[in-house]
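During the second year of the project, the team shifted from modelling isolated chains to modelling whole assemblies. The rationale, set out in the original proposal, was that interfaces cannot be judged from single-chain predictions alone. As a representative example for this report, we include one of the complexes processed in the last quarter. Its constituent sequences, exactly as entered into the pipeline, are reproduced here:
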Amino acid sequence: MTIPADLKYTKDHEWVRIEGDIATFGISDHAQEALGDIVFVELPEIGRTIDAGEAYAVVESVKAVSDVYAPVAGEVIEVNEELEGEPEKVNSDAYGAGWIAKVKMSGETLELMSDDEYTTFLEE
Amino acid sequence: MSELAKTPIFDEHVTLGGKMVPFAGFEMPVQYKNGALKEYTFVREGGAGLFDITHMGQVRVAGADALAFLQYVTTNDVSKLAEGQVHYSALLNDAGTFIDDITTYKISDREYYLCINAANRHKDVAHLLQQAAAFDVQVSDESDDTTLLALQGAAAQAALQPLLESDLESIGYYKFAQVSIAGRNSIISRTGYTGEDGFEIYIPNAIAVEVWQKLLANGAEPIGLAARDMLRTEMGYALYGHEISDAVTPVEAKLMWITKLDKGDFIGKAAVEARRAEGAHQRLIAIKLTERGIPREHYKVFANGVETGEITSGMFSPMAGGVALAYVKPEHAESAPLTVEIRGKAVPAERTTLPFVRSNVRR
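Output from the structure prediction step:
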């Protein structure tokens, strides 16, 4: 299981990459492994304003439907449309090609963990 | 909660990376390390998928009245079974609704073998024992002594044949043979729950691990519950607690083909006849979403924008897309535009025919 050092993580197993005022969201390797084969991703609409901790997307595995929560607040400016045809990218490349959405940050954030903190969190 | 039971194969599942979950009172593998989709694909695309379905129950019925007894407690016409033949059937209650769906194996005029659902085992056995009092028949629950494996897929026969002296080619679809495996009496039927050619293998627990390992050595791969449910849903096969339950009769569940009203009296017959005369309360239909989405159990179905029923089993089929079985009001079974409500949105659906994907069973 990989936990990149350049990302922040939430207790709900989302990751966020913050570059300036742009945040990219996805789910962690741990999350995709726990969910199993992902067969559907429901993406948010461009322009939607989301709060930190709000469910902004849905991932569906063979057996389960799971909400995905926003690590930080903002306005959705880009979504990974490739996931509509290839949702399995969330499994195969959770931190890369499996990214879900990008937002222009508006300030509010959840409590975010570093890679080391997330590693400890997973072990607890 | 009572402690979950383990099948004789449990340690093998764990060794193979099986993700164990509670299922019908047992700890069973929902998937192995490659995941449900790869397991599904392996079975559909020519492999030999090996399933531990030991959670299911087995009941032996023997005695001078065995035929008369089974004619009375099951829906199908047992007099039509030849020795070595299996059929799909059901146990109904007096209200004509399902106690369980089962398969019946005819060993001889005096001896039959039933395979029943895990979750219904104790209810079924209690019912059978109660009804048996009026017949010269012995009902024996052999579930605890029996391991049941399913080997499904185009390569199933090639993987199983080396374990046997007898030729599997002689066992036709819905036929079975009593055979010796590792020196022990076993039953092999050409039956299954996947829509692929394959077998169900009833063996004593003592040789369960040996047979499991030999089949894997012959190229079989283990398949978990998630892929099993995908495979059966694509065929439109009913699952107790979903399409059938004690809330529906065979009239609703499209199972009149196993309910033989012309065979004489049986439990539930009068109620089924009355329901047929009155008309089904709801009807089971097969639907396919025409836009992206996955229909799932309990999602509501609408006809002309008005709620008409709900999904009993739904899935993402890699071959057919978002497909589901649903109960709807009888007046909406044939026509009227349908939608499925998914997270508050109405997703259009069309009626389709079963199976959702092509069946490859050997007819």
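The CA atoms of residues 10 and 112 of chain A lie 5 Å apart. Residues 8-109 of chain A form a domain with the OB fold (Dihydrolipoamide Acetyltransferase, E2P) fold (CATH 2.40.50.100).
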